[in-house]
């Protein structure tokens, strides 16, 4: 889709509810397609799939489906070649895998690790492995992370059946786990990190599950809410503490000491996204601002942003499109905006 001719820098979509979870598709044939999750404080929530119409330059809702509880995260299958079925995953009470088609979005499987009880510990986040799309990892308030194996089974009536099983579950932290993310270190399949309410960043290796490495601990033991790996240099990751106006950048080769802090935020940070195409650019969101930083001069202090965008409401999510690096998506209130950078 050639939007460059129109030179519009911001495209906006207004949902019928507050938007929280949101993400870009990865497939090259569906470029300006995103999924949005509602944040409504009741059981019935919704997910919408929206796309930008080339002719009208407007966002259009392609489909809406009901989701139990708000989605804590949404991800499309990391399939840049379009080799797998068009799948979408959501976390909330459970991990769900959905199949998306032009006609409908259908639940393919619900992955539940608590087979013996009616109680489920809500999932705070999950990640889909880019190197092996048959691997997903979830993080939960019950202190555990679970690694799931996904199977796209035999074809029945022209439809591949999708199912999943627990590959491993581990107690990852002393308290709730708030985020999990696979690392590209060592091939990109086996290493992942997590953050949690105990204020630590921990690194795990699926080949050696008996121990973990603490990469960083918040000096005041404040809960760490998010972690985000640099997309080009797998040694770097960013994290943020609850109610903190700074983002901490870590180098796994130098554990426990931040290589940089992005401190010039006006309010607490709500989101982090590394550039997909550059190792030295990162976008953060605080209050009404989306900020892009150039961190090339690390470990010298990084004071200034190179780009700032002010939204009409408090930004609660930011995602940098992996297949089209000049577009960033933010959401605030009931709005999604995509910004050309």
TrEMBL record:
A Pfam entry, by short name: WD40
WD repeat extents: 262-303
Superkingdom of this protein's organism: Eukaryota
UniProt cross-references to SMART domains, sorted A to Z: WD40 (SM00320)
Ranges annotated as spanning the membrane: none
InterPro entries in alphabetical order: DCAF7-like, WD40/YVTN_repeat-like_dom_sf, WD40_repeat_dom_sf, WD40_rpt
Keywords (A to Z) from UniProt: Repeat, WD repeat
Protein name listed in UniProt: Ddb1 and cul4 associated factor 7
Taxonomic source organism: Ameca splendens
């Amino acid at each position: 889709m050639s939007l460059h001719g129109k030179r519009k820098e911001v495209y906006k979509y207004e949902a019928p509810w507050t938007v929280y979870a949101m993400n870009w598709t990865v497939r090259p044939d569906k470029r300006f397609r995103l999924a949005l999750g509602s944040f409504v404080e009741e059981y019935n929530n919704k997910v919408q799939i929206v796309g930008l119409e080339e002719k009208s330059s407007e966002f259009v809702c392609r489909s809406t489906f009901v989701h139990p509880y708000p989605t804590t995260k949404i991800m499309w299958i990391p399939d840049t070649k379009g080799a797998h079925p068009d799948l979408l995953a959501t976390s909330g009470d459970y991990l769900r895998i959905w199949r998306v088609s032009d006609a409908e979005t259908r639940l393919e499987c619900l992955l539940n690790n608590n087979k013996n009880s009616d109680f489920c510990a809500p999932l705070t986040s999950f990640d889909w492995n880019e190197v092996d799309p048959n691997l997903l990892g979830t993080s939960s308030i019950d202190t555990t992370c679970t690694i799931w194996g996904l199977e796209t089974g035999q074809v029945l009536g022209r439809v591949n059946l999708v199912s999943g099983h627990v590959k491993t579950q581990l107690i990852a932290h002393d308290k709730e786990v708030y985020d999990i993310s696979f690392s590209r270190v060592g091939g990109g399949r086996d290493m992942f990190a997590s953050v949690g309410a105990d204020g630590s960043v921990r690194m795990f290796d699926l080949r050696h599950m008996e121990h973990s490495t603490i990469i960083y601990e918040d000096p005041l033991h404040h809960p760490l809410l998010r972690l985000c790996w640099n997309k080009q240099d797998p040694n770097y990751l960013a994290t943020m503490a609850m109610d903190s106006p700074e983002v901490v950048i870590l180098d796994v080769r130098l554990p426990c000491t931040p290589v940089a802090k992005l401190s010039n935020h006006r309010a607490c940070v709500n989101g982090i996204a590394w550039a997909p195409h550059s190792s030295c650019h990162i976008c953060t969101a605080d209050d009404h601002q989306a900020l892009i930083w150039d961190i090339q001069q690390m470990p010298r202090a990084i004071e200034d942003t190179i780009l700032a965008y002010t939204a009409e409401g408090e930004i609660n999510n930011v995602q940098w499109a992996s297949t089209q690096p000049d577009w960033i998506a933010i959401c605030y209130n009931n709005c999604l905006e995509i910004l050309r950078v």
